[in-house]
Every structure is written in C-alpha cells, then in structure tokens.
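We modelled the chain as a single entity of 821 amino acids. Its sequence is:
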Amino acid sequence: MNNLLQDVRFGIRVLAAKPAFTIVAVLTIALGIGANTAMFTVVNAVLLRALPYPHPDQLVRITADLRGVNVPDIGLSVVELTDYREKLEAFDQIAGVWAITANLTGSDQPERVEALLASANYFALLGADAQLGRVFGPEDEIPGITEIAVISDGLWHRSFGGDPKVLGQRIRIDNDAYTIIGVMPPGFRHPGRTVAAEVDLWAPAGFSALPFGPPSRTARFLTGALARLKPGVTIEQARQQLDATGNALRNDYPNDYPERANWSPAVLGLQEDLVGKVKPALLILLAAVGLVLLIACVNIANLLLARWSVRQRELAIRLALGAGRWRLVRQMITESLLLSLAGGALALLTSVWATDALKTLTPSNIPQLAAAGLDARVFGFTFLISIVTGIAFGVAPALFSSNPSMQLALKEGSRGAGSGARHNRLRSLLVVSEFALALVLMIGAGLLLRSFSHLLNVDPGFDPHNVLVARVWLPQPNDPKTGPYFEHSKRVVFINEVLRRMRELPGVELASAATNVPLSGQRSSSGFTIENREQSATEVFAAYTASVTPDYFSAMRVPLVRGRTFSDRDDDKSPIAVVISETMARRFWRDDEPIGKRLKFGGQQSQNPWMTIVGIVGDVKTDGLDLENRPAFYRSFLQASSLSLMLVARTSSDPAVLSKAVQRGVQSVDPELPVFAVKPMDEVMASAMAERRFSMMLFGIFAFLALALAGVGIYGVMAYTVAQRTHEIGIRIALGAAGADVLKMIVGQATRLALIGVGTGLTLAFALTRLMSSLLFGVSATDPLTFLAISLVLTGVAVLASYIPARRATRVDPMIALRYE
C-alpha cells in the first residue's frame, strides 16, 4: 500500500510538472469517456434497466399475427381475451388494454389527452398504486366503461396545479363526466404502446357493452393484453400453452380464423416488446462511440510514448540505481490511471449535460427515454471504463519504455533516442490502428448520410411545402347516440362550416379535411371484395383507406391520373364513389380499366354497399418514405364521415403563422373542441424521418471526432519524428538535400502510414458495415463510392496533418541541427 501511495504521489507531481500535456490528455480522455457515458446512459435506461414493477421478468404482452398474409401484431378481440383468461393456466393475471386519445374539458382550455382503457385488474397485475387516492380494481368493473379516472402526475400538475383536493372532482371526457379517484406517482408509465405520448388518464372497461360493439372474434380493437406469468413459468411454456389454445380455436371456429390468414397468437416478454425495434440501432451507436474512445486511447498512447521517450535518460538512471523493470512499469501505469480517472471524473461531471443533449436528439418514440439519467450502473460503468481505458493506453507504452538500452540512453542524453526505432515502430502501429478505426466510423457515417440523402429525394406523392395540418377529434360519449356529432349530417355540417372559416383566413389558398394524412402515424387498412372477382387462397385484398373532402387532392397536390376526384355532388344522396391509387389499379386490375368497377368492404357475404371507382390518383407514401407504395382508396367525407379529422390548409406563405388562427376558427364553431398536433406538413415529414436522422447525426458526430483525433494523431507522430530526426535532417540539408526532398520524405512517410491504415480499415469496414444494413436505405452496406470517397478524405487529412511538421523540417538550419541534442 505504501508503494502504491508513493506511486500516486510521484505520478501527481510528474503530471503537474507538465500541465500542457496533462490538460490535453485529460480532455482527450474526457471526450471519449463522456461520449460513452452519455450513450450508455440512454442504453441503460432503454435496454438494461428493468421495468419499474415487481418481478418485471414475469410481465408479457399477448397479441396475434396473421402469418399467412404477413400482417404482424393485430391485437386481440374481447372474446379472445375471455378465452385466454379461462383456458390458459400459465398466467396469473391477464388484462386487456386499448390506448386512445380523448377530449378533456372542464379545465381552463380543452385538451386532447392520451387515455388508456384497461381491464379492472390492470394496476393489480402491474403491482402499482396511487400516490394520492386509489387505483381502480375488480370491484369497479362493469361491461362498458366505468366513469371513474386515475390521472397521471403530469396531468395533475398541468391541469389542476397539483391541488390535493383533486380527488372527487368531476372532469368531462368526450362529454361524459368522470370522477377522479387517484393520482399516479411521477415515475409511473404505462409499460406499452400508446397513440403518441405518455398516458394521462386511466379508466376501467369491460369492453363488452357501449361504447363498444357486440363482442366478436374478428373485432380485434384491443392493442393486446398485458399478462403476468405465474411464478416458475417461462415464456416458452406460456407460448406452448398459447399455441395449443390457438390451434383449438382455429379448429372450433374456422369461419373466424380462415386457413389462408394463418392466425397465430403470440406472447412476448414486455421488456423486449417495448425495446425490440430500437435495440439494434442503439447497440450499433454504442459500438460506434466505443470506437471513438478506442481512437482516443490510441492518441493518448502516442502522447505517452513521446513523453516517456524523452524520459529515457531518467528511466535508465533509475534502472542503473537498482529499480526493477516492473517497478517502472507500475509507476507508468499509475500515471496512466491518474490521467484516465481524471478524464472519467470530468466526463461524469459533464455527462448530465451530454445526456440531456442526447435525449434532445433522440426520437421521442423511444420507450423509457424519459428515465435516462445517472444511477449506480452509470457510475460503475464510468469508473470501470476509466480503469480499462487507463490500462489500455498505458500498458504498451510502459512496456516499451521500461527497458531502454541504459548505456545508449545515458550517452545520448535528453535526445531520447536510445529506443527510438522501437518507439517509432510502435507509434506507427498506433497511427495505422487509429486510421483504420476512424475509417470504419467515417464509412458508417457516410453510408447513413447517403441513405438520408436518398430518403430526402424520395417523391412522397404530394407537395408538403406551405401546408398546415391540424387534428380534431369530435367527442364520442360512452353512449354514442347522445353525442352531438353522432349523426353523419351533423358531422358534415360541422366540417363544412370549419372549412368555410378556414378559407376566409388571409393566406389560405385551399382548405380541406381527411380522416388521416400521409406520414402522420395514423394508419388505416381495410379488407375489401371486388365485384365478380374470385379471391384465391393466396390473394390479400386490403388497402389503406381515408375519407377526404373534395379539395383534398388539390390541397395536397396529389396528381389525378385519369377519371375524376370528388365534388360536392358526392354526398349521401348519391351513389358511393371511390378514388383509388395507381398501385391499387395495377395490383388488382393489371391491364383492365378499373374506372367503373365496384368494390365493397368485407368478404363476398358482407352486407356493406357497393362502391364505384370514379378516378385514379398518384401514389402517396402513407406510412414511411422508405416503404413501398401501398394500395390505397379514398371515399368522399360527404358520404363517409368520421369523428376523426385532419384539417389541411394550403397557404401562400409560411403556414406556421396560421396555427393560432386555425385553432380559433375551429373553436369558434365548437368551443369545447381541442385542436392539437397543429404543425406544417414539412414537420410531419421530418418526424417520419426522425429515427434515421438521429442515427445519421450521432454517427456523423462520432465520425467527426474520429477524423479530428486521427488528424491530431498523424500530426503528433510526424512532429515527434521531425524532432527526433532533426540531427539527420540537418546532415541531409548540409549534404545538399533540397527542401522539397525533405518535404517529400516526411509527407511520404505519413501517407504510407495513412494508406496502410486505410487498407486495414477498408477490410474492417467491409465486414462490419453489414451489421448496419437495417439502418440503410437505397445504398448497399458495401457501397464502393462511399468507401472510395471516405478513403480519399482520410488520406487527404493525413497529408495535410503531416504538412506542417514537414514544412518545419525544411527550415532546419544545418549548423544548429548538427549541434542538436
């Protein structure tokens, strides 16, 4: 212990004696460790931290897939929920859940909130309780919706000012009066998917009476069921039981489970279900930021080699006086650890800011992101990575520097050339490694940049510029017939009046509405039957659907291919008209002319009315710019209205300035209606690309850091080389060498190192970039153009970084150089 304390004290004195070196080294280490700590904080919160419920490993989600038609995660029906509760013995509890949004009134301003309708045993299943009041339980269950509510801590403070007297207050949700019975703790989150944000309100529901329709096996409106496994039961055992139950249901109800659809129930661990889609991207980014730290380690190792080569005389004297080699190694590793721990401490101090910045860049749909912050695991990670980093960049220089040729070191004095050849070889190896690692990161960033560029050039099928969208939901009470907009005619009157007022706003060229707009995340898909068309066992007749007002296609600038779009004459007194997309026309009619043909919702035996195709419009990217065009058909809102509305206004200037005016226009027709998600269509498109932009930006930041560190590394090696070879360069110049020859020699050496590093890096990149194929769009993971361009850039940086010390070498005075020591 005394020896260790002595090493620490001596190391502190040595580092303090060279403050410039120490500051540069600590900042470089802090940069690498800080980036890793911030990224690990997000990964820890999203992937590693257990869900904050008792025995989280027992929590699962039950859903189903239509494997025959490749449609995953279709949820389940109320009848299936009852079957599972009665027949599955692997589960302790099962609760149905349905995430919706609803209009909240009764506070200062009407608001659209996230609500979760759940079975009455929802909170008991999760083992959660209220911070104020109580949660609902089995005693609160009725066939429909029980008009009591548990609210989130956020809603409590946002709309009620954190008033402890909120219990017992009545609020109106879609015109129904609910009594607040409890407030959840600040950290409570629904452990599942929501419509857009965090759940603000929970209400118990039996799902088998109004406002729900009659229970049916095919009415799978539940987004799934949360379940808790019995102690000792594994997910695989539960899956086997669920498969057996699914086989029995398919045999007992063949009409509800057609063979070609291959309906199959599924059970997923809740943690994996939440994070499975984002896990690959986060792990790839964590690996990328790890490369940045590795490059930083290589840089510090180079700095230490340069520093300890200058201390060769001191080391030789200590060896001559009897110090053992491992004593010197321990001392030098102690200095390395002091540097890395100082860098780790600085990284930890700045990690809160770095994590907040990272959370700002991270797409909001990543689950559990709000919980990202410092905890014991993050502290432990930072300490461990600091120790590993100190050893990683300290061991090799220590081993190389602790065995100098004592006689040569004592003879040559402070020049430090006693082990020059060995040091130069190691420094060159480190630079080659640095360039190889930097190239891998830069190629990854280049591939993502090219992918994003391809994505920006995708034609969405409409013109998003100068378009404002806003969302409105008309209220649907628990007894729908009591709602002010229950009748179709009242919905039409409302939308016509709203659009009339929008058209009167200055700058509005066209105003329209639709049940959903492209890329908004509101997906709607319906099955249909074509008149006089037999459907084979392998065919799937399904398409994206939307109801739109007559000016919608003009406002969005969706081109008309042939036929016509809707007009005011397409109302409920006229035959039902349909406009289809080009992809739908090609897929279902091929060379036939679809205009004039008829289709209807459901199967051949359905009683739904026939609809006549009157026009064909261009394809629109409905679900994502990186996805193939889906078949789509549109109905006239005047014939098929809905409680869900997206207002669309094409403007002559910046649409954002009209946000408040549109909101006031809607509320001048109905003051109780909240207007939400008001944003330019350009922002909607940007949100649809948020995940790809996030990956590209982080990879770009990491690649820039790698490039900077590689440039500093080659500069350091060349500057050290010039200093070490000053005597030799002086002799060369004295013997007649021109400055250009010296310049060529130094730059040539740097270029050779860079090219070896680039060659090694290309091999690594060719193997590793395949792992990020899921993040790419429109470009191969081994795209030759990207590989070539990045290689040229990195080689160019090496040439530029070596030019400054090379120019310095050409100005060496031979007389001074010959006396240099």
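As a brief sanity check on the tokenised model: The CA atoms of residues 582 and 618 lie 6 Å apart. Residues 406-419 have pLDDT under 50 and may be disordered.
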